[in-house]
Amino acid sequence: MAVYTEVSDDALVRFVAGYDIGTVLSSKGIAEGVENSNYLLHTDRGNYILTLYEKRVDPGDLPFFLGLMEHLASRGITCPLPVKNRAGEALGELAGRPAAIISFLDGMWVRRPTAAHCAEVGEALARFHLAGADFPIRRPNALTLPSWRPLFERSRARADEVAPGLSADILAELDHLEAAWPSDLPAGVIHADLFPDNVFFIGQDLSGLIDFYFACNDFLAFDIATCLNSWCFEPDLAFNITKGRAILSAYERVRPLTDRERTSLPLLCRGSALRFLLTRLYDWLNVPPGALVKPKDPIEYLRKLRFHRTIADASGYGLALDAPPSAGVVPAGAAS
Amino acid sequence: MAVYTEVSDDALVRFVAGYDIGTVLSSKGIAEGVENSNYLLHTDRGNYILTLYEKRVDPGDLPFFLGLMEHLASRGITCPLPVKNRAGEALGELAGRPAAIISFLDGMWVRRPTAAHCAEVGEALARFHLAGADFPIRRPNALTLPSWRPLFERSRARADEVAPGLSADILAELDHLEAAWPSDLPAGVIHADLFPDNVFFIGQDLSGLIDFYFACNDFLAFDIATCLNSWCFEPDLAFNITKGRAILSAYERVRPLTDRERTSLPLLCRGSALRFLLTRLYDWLNVPPGALVKPKDPIEYLRKLRFHRTIADASGYGLALDAPPSAGVVPAGAAS
């Protein structure tokens, strides 16, 4: 939840005049999204989203994010599309911040996903991975293995305030992951944050993916791990293997996993859980004064991490290990 | 800024099915409004506001608020209009709270009002007062003179933490207002919170009034005092008499003030400033844990109060005291 930047009405009207989207009739700050300020604009042509990029977003990354949305949309992935201004630019400036107007995507995110929703997500993720294969801009993942230890160092001194023994637990996990992390998996553009609040549905049908502001180049299966973490645990943090199977089998119908991806899955799930544990831990310990955002509980991801340590192979997530890969194997185009 | 209540997608779809407003395509929490949770609904028929009434609102007051909106709209005041459900009710229940769907009102609130905006507000306020005259439900003002001392008692012990000497200052003001407060002014339905964020404009034209959740019966001129406080001070808290004159003369073109209202104006302005000082002081000292709302600065209203102490008569606000009331005097219909 966030509206960090107040936009004056006259500045907004001047900004929108640079676009061919009609006259602004109303503008409402949206209480969603943590990284940026978002406004819903109603014009005499329809609804649009105005995004102001706040300081957590590197302006140098914006051509990647905005270009990726255009690239994906042109390949049939339903996602918000940046609207170009009269100068042909997707990126402008408003209230001293980089700003863009994005098409409004209908749909609602599902608070209690079912296995049917998980299957839709698995399929959409695989299609996303295929569609991103020929996207020309590259952006390394700033939140994968090499970043985790330095990130933890910024929370380490106070980690045990959050849970006794947390610091030692994370250090042991870092040792393990640094020793075992794979280096040879199919890679490409990943969403990197495909939580339920970034997937819209209308009724039972997936209507689009949003929030590409963590997207980057990394192992494709790391994205699957993040979906297993964010879609398949019940509120009591029990893993629902039916949902895991739904994601994995729907994904594989579009892009079958390689053997190395299958065997790496428990490790990738541990890494993904640690990544969210670490960022949530840092945010938990560093709530800025006057913050409008309630930090998310890091312990949820500690418990998920501990679950993944008990998983010996990908069958623990519902993957049918003895089924042969389907005949129509689609190679990941951007394997590194 | 507030979304206090999360509404699950399936509960929302069930709730909306009770209304003839089409199918919900999206729902976004709006980062505006302090008292209630507001969602912008986009359906295949258009945009609507869904309001969930939180615990600061007494459910017993909702027929007054919703009925007032209907009453005003039927008399030509542009304001949001409650949508009745298929059972003919404006009020339902969602996520355990009283809830209503309200028509979406286009327009934006003006961050830096000009004298022209102030004139529009003065005229709209007078029309509001006339339109409310025959509204049959009554609701006493819970935030006028008798409530102020008990309200202050809840902050008194810690008031000097906010500003040295604040407690003594407020106590002296309470003594003065309790001795001098008028009892015989024209009364009726007042908005009671007509700050700039509750008045929408499209371009230079006022497009409607919103947020009737403080509306009540009280002196009509107390509403004018609140507008002078909230529209006519510059960011450095200097009073802009041009803006004051704009509000007052536009108001008087619709409803001329009585002599007693004119002479009472400085006192009413002090009372209105104290009312907002006291509620802001209480909120400042009582930010709930995990609050999403940043409390507003009480000291702004202390400085406004001190300004009003220097005003000898209503000419200090720009009122033309020697001009005779215009010929077409419209009596305040609901004078108590």
Automatic annotation (TrEMBL), chains A, B:
Pfam families: APH. InterPro entries: Aminoglycoside_PTrfase (IPR002575), Homoserine_kinase_II (IPR005280), Kinase-like_dom_sf (IPR011009), Pseudomonas-type_ThrB (IPR050249). Pathway: Amino-acid biosynthesis; L-threonine biosynthesis; L-threonine from L-aspartate: step 4/5. This is Homoserine kinase. PANTHER family: AMINOGLYCOSIDE PHOSPHOTRANSFERASE DOMAIN-CONTAINING PROTEIN, AMINOGLYCOSIDE PHOSPHOTRANSFERASE DOMAIN-CONTAINING PROTEIN-RELATED. Residues 28-257 form the Aminoglycoside phosphotransferase domain. Keywords: Amino-acid biosynthesis, ATP-binding, Kinase, Nucleotide-binding, Threonine biosynthesis, Transferase. GO terms for molecular function: ATP binding; homoserine kinase activity. Its EC number is 2.7.1.39. It catalyses: L-homoserine + ATP = O-phospho-L-homoserine + ADP + H(+). Belongs to the pseudomonas-type ThrB family. The keyword Iron does not apply. GO terms for biological process: threonine biosynthetic process. CDD domains: HomoserineK_II.
